[in-house]
Amino acid sequence: DSYVTDYDIGEVLNIENNDFEYEFNLALDRLIARKSDWKNMSERGYQLYVKEFSWNEMQQRLWNLYKELTE
Asked: Is 12 helix (H, G, I), strand (E, B) or coil?
């Protein structure tokens, strides 16, 4: 949920409430109210993927990890 809030790419449910249905509906209502921002949210989500989770990024992280383990 930190990625969702930090990059503003969606809504996060408050699971401490223990009322999943209520929290889900609340988050869905907030998301629907932000319909005009969906395209921007999508772009921010894609940029997050490219920056943090793309294969090129994962490959570099793995190489760095393997290098550290062999030193």
From this structure: coil
